Amino acid sequence: MSLPASIKKIIKPAVMRLKPVLESIFQLESKISRFWAGSAHKRLMFVQWALPPQPECFDHHIDLYYYWLASRNPLWVERGVFGSLALKGGDVLELACGDGFNARNFYSLRSKEVIACDFDPKAIKTARKKNSAPNVKFLLADIRKDMPRGKFENIVWDAAIEHFTPGEINKLMAEIKNRLVAGGILSGYTIVERKEGKSLSHHEYEFKDKQDLLRFLTPYFKHVTVFETIYPSRHNLYFWASDGTLPFRDGWSFMATEHING
Ligand SMILES: C[S@@+](CC[C@H](N)C(=O)[O-])C[C@H]1O[C@@H](n2cnc3c(N)ncnc32)[C@H](O)[C@@H]1O
């Protein structure tokens, strides 16, 4: 309902005087709540990661409310964004989804349905509690024995391929390929091994470089893109693989390009 012009004319100067007052009140409230949310998530991170046993996945609400701002490292957002560039709009299978943050906040809005699975009951419980959405289903499944069945336009394997041995990765690639529709895309993220060795005891195999990751993908897919980002604390590898079109390649429907000769 919109107000008559005469009333608007009377109210407008009062609203203009009130706006800076309201803004400073809410800036103060935001500052207090930012501080509180940040310090609560810092304590949560301490309990989860500094006290044994160490978890296998990260609660991304800690990134959202504390760790991103403390570290200035956007890596966790980068993963969601690069993963969602590969989305085709249909059904998605997310392997080893952890807390389910990406399923809800990066994939669900641009997909028909997301089936997200993990073998850790605590991760699935957290996912259902913190990251539920109408078109996201969280399933408890060990993907080595029990990968959800079906046909998917996208399969996402993010921050988890390094949790498997090279032999397991090979077998899982074949299972993934069977579940992709023609032209479906596998996407994901992993890390390069540091000089000092593996960064997490749960990791079975960390990749040596881009070529080392490529060799697991090229036997199964006609087109593969592997690219990296390098931060002081971490060297990241991203991958998109498909028999159809990949992001930023010719024929990708979300892009228009023009080549100017000369
Ligand atoms: C580093 S976390 C990544 C979670 C999530 N993809 C993310 O990006 O936040 C790795 C996840 O792999 C899961 N995982 C490891 N082995 C698995 C298996 N065999 N089947 C299903 N999930 C597995 C772990 O439980 C953990 O949640």
Describe it for me?
This protein folds into 2 domains: 1-52; 74-242, Rossmann fold (3-Layer(aba) Sandwich), CATH 3.40.50. It has 8 helices and 7 strands. The chain has helices spanning 5-50, 60-71, 75-85, 101-107, 121-130, 143-146, 166-179, 210-217; strands at residues 91-95, 113-118, 136-140, 152-158, 180-191, 223-231, 234-242. Bound molecules: S-adenosylmethionine. S-adenosylmethionine is lined by residues 56-58, 96-98, 102, 118-120, 123, 142-144, 158-160, 163.
Tell me the CATH superfamily of the largest domain: Vaccinia Virus protein VP39
Based on helices, strands and strand pairing, what is the structural class?
A: alpha/beta
Please tell me how large the radius of gyration is. Answer: 22 Å
Classified by CATH, the class of the largest domain is Alpha Beta
Helix and strand run: HHHEHEHEHEHEHEE
> Uncertain regions: pLDDT < 50 for 5+ in a row?
none
Number of domains: 2
Provide the CATH architecture of the largest domain.
Answer: 3-Layer(aba) Sandwich
Q: Which ligands are bound?
A: S-adenosylmethionine
Mean pLDDT: 95
| Helical content class | 40-55%
The end-to-end distance, rounded to whole angstroms, is 58 Å
Q: List the strand order in the largest sheet.
A: 3-2-1-4-5-7-6
